[in-house]
Amino acid sequence: MIKPLLFLHIAAGSVALASMLIPIVAIKGGRLHRRAGWVFVGAMAIVSATALLLSGARLFFDPRPAARDAGFFLLAVAFLTANAVSTGVRVLQFKQRTTPHLHWWDTGLPALTALFSLALGAYGIWRGQVLFMAFSVIGLLGGGGALRYWLRIPTTRMHWWFEHMGAMLGGCIAATTAFLVVNASNMGMWPMVAWLSPSIIGTPATIIWTAYYRRRFSATSSRSGISSGAPVAVPGTL
């Protein structure tokens, strides 16, 4: 049972890695952007589901302490990945909301991600695992950020764009991290670098890119004589 799941996990991860750059460079909201985006989302959904099963099997059924540690860590990473991709898709379905969004899935998954991240951080401190502590912070930012987004009243009309972009780029960071970790030994890369470099590079890049679109939307709105939060003719859906 484990081997077929692992094969499916690897295959889906390969598809996600191959498709993730297309939505980034394609015209936002165009047919290519949407189609490639859905391929990426579907592949990452399979990656997340199989990762939950594989890491759960390690955590609960493998008696070796090292395997259980790995299972706990990978389970938290799986929740982080699932939360990013789920948020990136779900925000598009509630673009017009004007009140807090309390759907059990949309608030439950990031809350679970944040809780697992807290537990991972506490365990990492107890065991002296720097990687666990680092991913605890990443998970708290991802889960807490998504939960904050859903529970807050939107303050701009383009709130969904920025959340969608940040969440999907988070999924891309997860796919890149998995690729580097699997191939670290072949690439002569220190495992800690493989685990953390995508987040260290990708997070500031996401912030810069988001700031660029905020300025772009603001400039477009000003020229149109409308409020800075109003929609502009630059769609950003999958």
Describe, in plain words, how this protein is organized in 3D.
The chain has 238 residues and is mostly helical. The chain is built from eight helices and no strands. It has helices spanning 2-19, 21-25, 31-61, 65-93, 104-127, 130-151, 159-183, 191-224. Helix 4 runs parallel beside helix 6 (130-151). The chain is globular. Residues 225-238 have low confidence and may be disordered.
Topology, pairings included?
Elements: H1 2-19, H2 21-25, H3 31-61, H4 65-93, H5 104-127, H6 130-151, H7 159-183, H8 191-224
Helix pairs in contact: 1-3, 1-7, 3-4, 4-5, 4-6, 4-7, 5-6, 6-8, 7-8
Key words describing this protein structure:
238 residues; mainly alpha; 8 helices; 79% helix; 0% strand; globular; disordered C terminus
Largest sheet report? none
Helix content bin: over 70%
What's the tally of helices?
8
Q: Structural class given helices, strands, pairing?
A: mainly alpha
Summarize the structure.
This protein is mostly helical. It contains eight helices and no strands.
